[in-house]
UniProtKB/TrEMBL annotation:
GO molecular function annotation: peptide transmembrane transporter activity
Keyword Glycoprotein carried by entry: no
Sequence ranges assigned to domain Solute-binding protein family in this UniProt record: 88-437
Protein name per Swiss-Prot or TrEMBL: Peptide/nickel transport system permease protein/peptide/nickel transport system substrate-binding protein
Pfam families associated with the record: SBP_bac_5
InterPro entries: Peptide/Ni-bd, SBP_5, SBP_5_dom, TAT_signal
One GO cellular component term noted in the UniProt record for this chain: outer membrane-bounded periplasmic space
Predominant place of localization: periplasm
Record localization: Periplasm
Biological process per Gene Ontology, one example term: peptide transport
Gene3D superfamilies given in the database record: Dipeptide-binding Protein, Domain 1 (3.90.76.10), Dipeptide-binding Protein, Domain 3 (3.10.105.10), Periplasmic binding protein-like II (3.40.190.10)
Amino acid sequence: MTRTGNTPPGWRPGRRQVLAGLAGTAGLAAMGLPRAALSQDGTTLRVISGHNPSSLDPAVGSSGTDHTFLYCFYDSLVDWDPETLAARPGLASAWDFPDPTTLVLTLEQGVSFHDGAPFDAAAVKFNLDRNRGAQVSNVRNDLANIEAVEATDAHTVTIRLKAPDTALPLILSDRAGLMVSPRALGDDPEGEMGRSPVGTGPWRFVSWTDADSVKGERFADHWRPDAPGVDRIELRIITEKATAFRAIQSGQADLAYLLAEQQKALIERMPQLKLYEGPTLRVHKFYFNSSRGPLADVRVRQAIGYALDREAFVAATQAGVGEPARMVLPQAHWAWSEAAAGHMVHDPDKARALLKEAGFEGGLELTFLGMHDQASVQRSEVVLEHLSAVGITGRFVNGPVADVTNRFMGPERFGDVYLSYWTGRPDPTLTYALLYSESSFYNAGRVAPPEGFLEALQASRESQEIEARARALADVQRIAMEHALSVPIAVAYEVDASSSAVTGYQPNLLGKPKFRGVSLAAS
């Protein structure tokens, strides 16, 4: 599919109209936002984010919503094209596979961290060794295929692999490739910088006030001469979509991302607002702890998959803006598989038959976890209604995303089912490895995947040809959906809004915006 300009396929800029009746600070206070909630300085990009970060250390954090914050303070070894997610140069200006099990990175020169330390091959080795080996790291599985990392010279890094891995460049565009300053950690790989990030990114860290805001100021020595486009960035954390919308509507913010799908029609009618919309890799889904109890039985997990009416879910919770998810990829993605999709259809009779076969004809009660914002509570109510129709009942325990994620997937292992989302990764092999590998944080039960899964996953990493990779990934996805390792429900579509003063904003298929190229037109 051809893509033109900076608008990906499926993305349509909203109509621009004249704003009538801007709400002032009094109106903002009336909606529950303090008068000083958002800076009014014209050189500050004021962004509304829906989630508090779990950590500002890329190796330590656990929430997929962290990335937008991390991109402000860190650069990655490899970047990606916002329209296609194809790999682009980042801190690594070039890379090459001289043989199937060797990846050589050539680094940008003249780059420094915010603390003045040089970015060089030694820093890359420190980061990759930390990310794949330190106990504090949550991204060890991302780099499990690395045998050794060598600083060949000051600006060259050689990575020895256990097996061929053509996915690795894009893996290095994600958390595992975001570079932190070794000096800031005292050269201690077990150190953390969750509250004091030091990278090479476009902004230096200024402050993080929990559940309120994260702020940064321009890094004057950034290695990209055209970044950042504003002197300061302020990411204001507003979890309720209605409040976030009122902030952008009133002019108290410049940009809000991942608004509610229901707000699309309102944005289209809002004067002087731009609308950005389109599919993302963000998928609402059920995570399971399948190591114990009823969910250890594949028939119960399959019954849950058949019980859900995905079309009704999209209509009820997303105002029809989105698509039913039958795997953890949207249909627009190159690795989407028709065969895998057939295991996630609405069939209540089959769900009841599977529950009866598993010994739960009289009903089944489960403990669910979910987030506490209004939209998440609505999603909880809808899925409980679908499940109750086949005899599955339960209660939801709700809380902030970082808290409930750690409670379900961390040491406590509380609950049976977690209704959340998967935010996607640039390369789909990383998505499947992270969701279902035995030791992965996101595999709450830490259970081994079914026979053939790991072999198919490895096969998808052995070719640089997209068709061969898609065939191997079809097997991966078929196994995952056939065994209901998790249950996808709906693909979330991006609904972003900005003021007309915002230029250079480019949403992406990943659904995790970067702001380094954004600027504000003079008023």
